[in-house]
Amino acid sequence: MKMKLLGTALLSSAVAFGAAGMAQADEFPTKPLTLVVGFGAGGSTDIQARVLANVLEDELGQPVNVVNQPGAGGGVALARLANNTDEGYTFVFGTSMTITFGPLSTETTYDLDDFRYVAGVTLGQSAMVTGEDRPFGDSWEELVEYARENPGTSYATQTALDRMIIEYIARQEGLDLRIVPTSGGAGMAPLILSGDVDFGYSGGTHSGYAETGEMPVLLSLAEDRLVAFPDAPTLQEAGYDINAAEIRVVMVPKDAPDAHVERLAEALEAATQDERFIEITEERILMPVTYLPEDEVTQTLRDQVEGYKALIEELGGLPDEE
Amino acid sequence: MTENHTVLRMNFWSGLGVATFAVLLLTWVVPHYGGRGFAVGMHPRTLATLGAWIMLVCALALVLLSAIALIRQRLPFFRLPKPGYLWHQTWPFLFVLAFIVLVDRFPLTWVAPFLIGSLLLVLGERRWYVVLLTAMIPAIGLYGLTAHLMRIGVV
Amino acid sequence: MIGFDAILASFAAALHYESIAIILGGVLLGYIVGVIPGLNRAVAIAIAIPLTFYMSAYAAIAFLIGLSKGTAAGSAVSAILLNTPGEPSSAATCLDGFPMARAGKPRKALKVGLLASVIGDLLATLLLIAVAIPFASVALKFGPYELAAILIFALVFIAGMAGGSFLKGLAAGGMGVILGTVGLDPETGAARLTFGHAELMEGVPILPLVIGTLALAEMFVQLDEYRRNRGASVIKLGKDKQDNLSFREFKGTLPTIFKSTGVGAFVGALPGLGPSVGAFMAYGLAKRSAKDPDSFGKGNPNGIAAAEAADNAVIPASYIPLFGLGIPGSVSAALLVGAFMIHGIQVGPLMLRDHPEMLFTLFSGMIVASLLMLAVGWYGLRIFAKVTSVPPHIVIPVVIFLCLAGIQVQGYGTFGLVTVFAFAIFGYFLKKFDYSFVTFLVAFIVTPMLEMNLRQAVILSGGDIAILLDRPIALAFVVFTVLMTLHLAWSSYRQWRQKRLKAAGS
């Protein structure tokens, strides 16, 4: 463990030595860093970011300040980061959807190529969920059967992405769904729990009901099955060729110096092995921690964008595209 | 009549302003920027259009009622404001706007003493220690708040 | 189920001097931040969350509860003394608080506000503890149909009490509706009136809007007044012998306080409505049921009492769906979820089973925090009421600075500053031409909620209005709304006729 870390450190400083000279590589960071969260204080992303900042502070030897820039589902923070010239001193901790699907569904001033993805540190756990005691139980197949026989089965959507996925599924399976908009997990939960809506999308709210079983999962939208709901199949397993896996990533503007990005990546890799970070993420927020290096996460994000574009094309364009 | 003349004139002109604005919203802003697309429930523009209609109808009614009252009482429709009045009304806004432009360039913490100090001087405060203390304490407070308590760096 | 001994033990824990000290710390921090115009709960939270990392679970939660109460009470202080509410929900407190403070009774206004807020808060907390959690699932009976009907009712109800000119109030409300629709359309995802600004996609941010329209605009108005009658100080403290709250006056506000607590608790128990709706509805109810509705908005203690009692009753009541169903019903409830999460406790129905001691410690902490708030506020108001004796030419520049600082501190950046400035101009015109900011603000806050619920209702029902027959609660509110509208039309027609008769008679 320690040896490996040391190895990466040596290697990266050697690379940096060749590229930019010893001084720069050793110096970063020489002043406090800023970790920007695209959501308000107190949410799960914010809490995780604050623990991450604490851990990074120990790794980098400089204070890491946490700044909230809420708005547009994380989009405001990214729009500002794209114009940032801080050379990696300012970085955003956010979710991949903002950067992959955001620029496709709304007009944004940034896109995938405006940033470097230092590393992915956590895998999302979004899912299609339902309530207790539904006629179709908690099985995806039975739900599809039920929806086919009952036109007007209702679905609660929260994001443009899950709306597109369900529209794709509905077309694939020949379903006539009523798609109801809701605002966030707090808006979706009452509709699902009361039975007013048959099933819906959930970013992470369902994890809170894992023990009570009040919100069973029908389908995992992550790459693998969900940690807390191992019985629900993934999108691929259910026969839909979509990769909608959420990854929580750290991003810097695309012109950040290599040496700085590498130093950050090193610190992040160490953070994913730090107990504090693992505890808050896996035991509290209930999402698995992994370390995805820059090239891997960038490739995944690029593939996702391509996949979404194909999907949009298949569905005949987004409703508001002119 | 209980309303005095100024109120009637104010209602007339402000109503006219609101009505014009509402017409502008209805004919140009909402149709162009209100969003498009097909929706099962309500069209994206429905509520904004409704709001604009409410503004238009109410403002027109206001204009009409105050105009009738003005005509009945044979009052003039406008009285030119005293010279200097307009400037008297606008400069505080320009003053703050100028500082907002400054804050865009430099941190508020550094700009603040000048903002507070100069406004104090304009308002007629001449005791130097009052100006100094009033200008410095809030800025120092902001520095303590951002740099140490919230730890978001100097804003 | 938890035993009586355990409940007693948890109360004893809350009365331990250490926990009292922590709650007091939270109350003080929240109060100080809340009192400063331009700063509000969000700032206090941002200060507090890193601190709570190093506390035990109980201490962190006690601290945040204290903080939440402190900001609410502090925000009312600046609303009353300077007409600059820190939270949108304190805007209703301004309506009577500021006129009363201007009339030379700032202490009385502050005391009414403080007592009403503590009573509202305590009663709602007791309700939460005693009965509410087992009945939390009743809130699920209020689906999109019911919420849409209630929100329409609230809109009509509040529009009816706007006072001043009805037409002007309604026009301002129209503007509020338009601004309330800004952002991504919830159904189609189309960008509405955002003009390409990412910052507007989730709607016009409420904080710059409130600080601009109310606080900064108020400073421009006071600046104008100050320069007109230089030398005349705004409020003289302690000069008026009546500037104290007699027990009789306090007793007079009690019925209002109880009624408003009821309104606040009802609104709070339904997920998603929030304290602003509660405060304005209670204010409207108090005005409507008063013998002298015309004295509202001119410094009627009942107006302050109604707004403050309801505003503070909403918060404990919003914990009912939180602990009963796991649904955070308000911003402060969502905050609590975060705090629990840090310390490894999942908030929800299971808390009563898995961590009952935590739950009851929390409840006792809430009661202790309320009482501490009373003490802090009682002494605090003596100090802060002195703000009114600071000459206005010093207050105005400092408050202008604080408004800008509040925006910068919360990361809204240049966009936020421009927004605040634009709304300051807007608010200045509202005040100068006597357009009601109440209808504007309420329409702005209610529109997005109403739109969301209305759309859900229309989609779920497939546009079939007969569904109302299956939803008696929704139907009832629709009928109330119709009756209310008829009543409003009738009474304004009568007023108009009386005025005509008087004019003809004179």
UniProtKB/TrEMBL annotation, chain A:
Residues 1-25 form the signal peptide. Keywords: Signal. The keyword Signal applies. InterPro entries: BUG, Bug_dom1. It holds the Pfam family TctC. Belongs to the UPF0065 (bug) family. This is Tripartite tricarboxylate transporter substrate binding protein.
UniProtKB/TrEMBL annotation, chain B:
The keyword Transmembrane helix applies. The chain crosses the membrane at residues 12-30, 50-71, 91-116, 128-150. Keywords: Membrane, Transmembrane, Transmembrane helix. It comes from the Bacteria. This is Tripartite tricarboxylate transporter TctB family protein.
TrEMBL record, chain C:
The keyword Transmembrane applies. The keyword Transmembrane applies. Keywords: Membrane, Transmembrane, Transmembrane helix. Pfam families: TctA (PF01970). Coiled coil: none annotated. Residues 21-441 form the DUF112 domain. The chain crosses the membrane at residues 7-36, 42-65, 112-136, 142-159, 204-221, 322-346, 358-378, 390-407, 413-430, 437-454, 474-493. This is Tricarboxylate transporter family protein. PANTHER family: TRICARBOXYLIC TRANSPORT PROTEIN.
